[in-house]
Specification:
Length: about 130
């Protein structure tokens, strides 16, 4: 139980760290992005970049969860659902500021991407381990 709890906390922290680092990259890559963050008036490229960074952070969070609690198939889903629960109120507040496709593209794949990140770690481990005869 403690391993699952610790993996969930680590996964949530990993999501925050990765999204922060990726956001710095987005600021450097897209001119005007940093200024647009204060007004939330993003170009389509900026919105796409935000969605990509969220997807990558979700995959990374799932990988961290799986590395800490490799036997738990539920821990990545727990992290994904916690993230979803945290972001639903924010997206509800911002509902009129962004198009429907943006909200759905962020919220719908959030938990499945965390789970996919965990599966990627599982699959990479099974590929590296030699077959036992």
């Amino acid at each position: 139980m403690w391993r699952i709890t610790g993996s969930a906390v680590a996964g949530l922290l990993a999501w925050v760290v990765f999204i922060t680092l990726l956001n710095f990259a987005l600021r450097a890559a897209i001119p005007g992005y940093h200024a647009a963050e204060t007004t939330l008036v993003f170009t389509p490229a900026m919105k796409t970049g935000r969605l990509v960074e969220a997807a990558l952070a979700s995959l990374a969070a799932g990988a961290v969860v799986r590395l800490i609690a490799p036997a738990s198939k539920w821990a990545p889903w727990i992290v994904g659902l916690i993230l979803l629960a945290m972001f639903l109120p924010e997206h509800a507040k911002l509902w009129n500021r962004f198009p429907l496709w943006y909200h759905l593209s962020f919220l719908v794949p959030l938990a499945p991407l965390v789970a996919a990140g965990a599966v990627m770690v599982t699959n990479s481990r099974s590929v590296r381990q030699p077959a036992v005869s």
